[in-house]
């Protein structure tokens, strides 16, 4: 069994498990769009009421929404049945994990504001954002699967995972990103407001499927070496 075949089977197994977990909790397909809309509404209210001082409150709202999603995402990846009445528990489950990561990012932006000359701030801020997207790509999985709490701890663990699995993790994620980037605009947008809502629901559901797939892929890759994976699939007798 060659390397390509082994990793195609790993990806296929992660996708199969994602479908199994979602089948038990089909309602969670609506979570991304519901949380994004609620988060956007709450953010608008906070900024409108508090202005600049509301930025930290906004971050708290974002952290709560992210914690909620990570909680239900983790349960789906674990193939557990979850109900909406667990919402109260979900808000605080990973709140400080997310908030601490936000704090690290905020410190980095503060350093740029203080150290970089005015005209170059925008460029450095953009570079920081791109670096964060790359370096912290596995941060969600690190938080809800490995239970990291501190912001630096999450960054370090995410970096270690990517260093060990940058090819195995990067290829499917880049293919998913390319599919999203090159897919033409949804025709549902021609239906007006209804089309916009339906498009958001469909895109949110696809995002959820991708995140559950990533969760299973992370579990398969983290803590194992390439040699161990090859041995496991060769000895499984599935060829």
Number of helices: 10
Integer-rounded radius of gyration? 20 Å
Order of helices and strands: HHHHHHHHHH
Q: What percent strand?
A: under 5%
Q: What is the average of the pLDDT values?
A: 88
Q: Provide the helix percentage.
A: over 70%
Overall shape: it is globular
pLDDT below 50 for ≥5 consecutive residues: which ranges? none
- Which class of secondary structure composition applies to the elements? mainly alpha
Distance between the termini: 7 Å
- DSSP strand count: 0
Largest beta-sheet characterization:
none
List keywords for this structure.
239 residues; mainly alpha; 10 helices; 79% helix; 0% strand
Element layout with pairings:
Blueprint: H1 3-24, H2 31-50, H3 55-77, H4 87-93, H5 95-115, H6 118-135, H7 139-146, H8 151-182, H9 193-221, H10 226-235
Helix pairs in contact: 1-9, 2-3, 3-4, 3-5, 3-7, 3-9, 5-6, 5-8, 8-9
